[in-house]
Each structure stands twice: as structure tokens, then as C-alpha cells.
Amino acid sequence: LRGAGVDFGSFDILSDEQVRAGLKVYSNWPTFPQLYVKGVLVGGVDDAAKLAEGGDLKAQLAVAAGVDVGKATAAAADGSKSVQDRCKKLLASAETMVFMKGSPDAPRCGFSRTLVGLLRDEAIEFASFDILEDQDVRQALKELSNWPTYPQLYVKGELVGGLDILKEMKNDGPLAPQLGIKPKESLDSRLKGLISSRSIVLFMKGTPDAPQCGFSRTAIGLLRDEGVDFGTFDILEDQEVRQGLKKFSNWPTYPQLYAQGELLGGLDIMKEMNEAGELGSALRPQAS
């Protein structure tokens, strides 16, 4: 085919046993390769060789399949270009992209599961594409990347490799610096940073000047009455922090008040301490 300048697509039947067995029955042709033109079976390698002996293979294929090969190959070329454009858009859709079998939470092969685990172990954010859901992308990406297997890992649109490559990199040290990407900060680390960002921090609904609930408004009033310097975080603006801090602190409601990195409690605790004259001393660091 290449010798005759015929444009063609291909499918690796070794990669899909269901297609391999099914096509034999569908075509009533027991061996591979099998050559099709515009959906019509021409035959195997012996048939293609015989057609080539008759002269212009393109013309002979047209006669054998009863189609205009020039138009058919042009359409195939257009289709191939369209799929490659899709692949390039997918590669550009995220800084770190994994083409895998299945999804990160439901991988369909051990290689994909292991690669996802390596990335998650280092809190590396990534997007993914399930190549089992799109055979066109599955085949086109192999040609585009010149990489025959999956999963495939890309960073900033460039192929890093498959699982073996990532394992080798892991043996050399942390993956993120080698990949040139910044790992996502863990939620616990982020929460600790927010809690320790000021000596006194109130996690509340809204802001001090525009509280979004009566409990938060009252808590702000108590802190202002004490005349202490404090910071706040609006949990309505960040659902990850809102849900995560409940588990981190084992405290189910808001507002939550922290002093010197330690949880004092919610509004009821603040009120009790205020009535007992203990709120001010609890908020201010004790001299050692």
C-alpha cells in the first residue's frame, strides 16, 4: 500500500481480542491482515499482491471494491486529520494529562491503576481521558505520539511516556520536579496553614463587615469587644475548606475560632468563656 502511495488507516487486532475474533466471523475471512476499501472486503495479503501485479494498485482496488479510491482515500485523510486535531486539543486541555483505560477512580487495567497511584501519591493534579470510550482517539494517539501502548502521560502537551518510564523516574526521586510541575498542596497542609496564618483566626460565613449568619455576626462582635487583632476566612467561598475543616477539627458547625493554632470552639464556647471572663486570656498568648 505504501509503495503504491495509498493512504490508509489501520487497526491492531492484537490489541483487541473481541475485534480479532469477531471480524473473522463478520467477514467470513479466517486470517489477517484483512484489507477493506470503503467498507468492502478486498481480501488478504495474497489478494493485494495479485492486484498490485495488475498495475496501478489504486485503480485495481477501485475495480475490486467498486468504489472511487481517490475519493475514499481523500475522505479517510480528512477524517484522520480531524481525529488528530481532537487529540491535540485534548493534550492542550490540561497541564498534566493521562490517557488511560477507564477513569482514575475506576481504572480498567493494572497499568493504568498503578500510574494513577503514582501521581496521586505525590498529590499531582491531572486530567484523564478514557481511551476505551473512543477508538478513533485510541488509534490516532498511538500514531501521533509514536507510542504503542497505554497508559500514556503528557505534561504541557509533551509525551513523558508510559508506566515503565514513570516508575524509572520515581526510582530517581520525587516525580513533580522531574516532570516540571508543582504538586497540589494537600488539604490538611492547607488547613494547617490557614489556622496558623494569624494568632487568632475565625472561620465564619461571610466577612467581618458583612457576616452571612447571626452566629458569625455575634462571634465577630465578641472578638471586637476584646480588642484583639484577628483574621477571618469565609467558608462560603471555599467548599473544600468548609467540609475539610469539619473533619480536621472534629467540629461540625461554624463559626470556628482558633487561637495560637488551637481550636477554642464555636459561638457557644465563646459565649461561655466571655461570661466567665476567660475569653480574653484564652485569645492572648500566655507569657512563659
TrEMBL record:
Keywords for this protein: Iron, Iron-sulfur, Metal-binding
Pfam families found in the cross-reference section: Glutaredoxin
CDD domains attached to this UniProt entry: GRX_PICOT_like (cd03028)
Record keyword Protein transport present: no
UniProt cross-references to PROSITE patterns, sorted A to Z: GLUTAREDOXIN_2 (PS51354)
Transmembrane feature ranges: none
This protein's GO CC annotations: cytosol; nucleus
GO BP terms, alphabetized: intracellular iron ion homeostasis
Gene3D superfamilies: Glutaredoxin
Listed GO MF terms: iron-sulfur cluster binding; metal ion binding
Residue ranges occupied by any Glutaredoxin domain in the UniProt entry: 1-42, 97-160, 200-263
Name of the molecule in the record: Glutaredoxin
Species lineage: Eukaryota, Sar, Stramenopiles, Ochrophyta, PX clade
